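Notes to self, Flavodoxin:
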Amino acid sequence: MLIVHHTPSPNCQALFEAVVSGATAPEIEGVRVVRRAALAATASDVLEADAYLLGTPANLGYISGALKHFFDQIYYPCLDATRGRPFGAYVHGGSDVTGALRALDSITTGLGWRRAAEPVTVTGEPDRAGIEACWELGATLAAGLME
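result:
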């Protein structure tokens, strides 16, 4: 499973850490979890993964520029080979994440990826419920890959 994230703030870092903790929980066996910053992730990373977990802040009503750059780099090289693969996402925003969710839906639909879990959205400082939802997101995606 590939976790591609843009984590520019302590709030995003808390959500990222919760996702990783869920994906690597002791009860998850036989799943390799690879973490890549959005600006470092490559088409090879995407092609080698069986599922994707995407994390982004909502910036000016959209996904982060770093995550958009990731998609721009991998779109055509991965378009046919990754069709149907599962993904999940978490988005952090100061107040509204609607535009970022719309962008993620549009891009992942174009790639033909299959939503394996509802996106987790957190606004403001992450509370316990947001952290737990991110943990569950990571665990759910990883558990779906267990043999």
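- Helices lie at 10-23, 43-48, 65-78, 98-111, 128-143.
- The mean pLDDT is 97.
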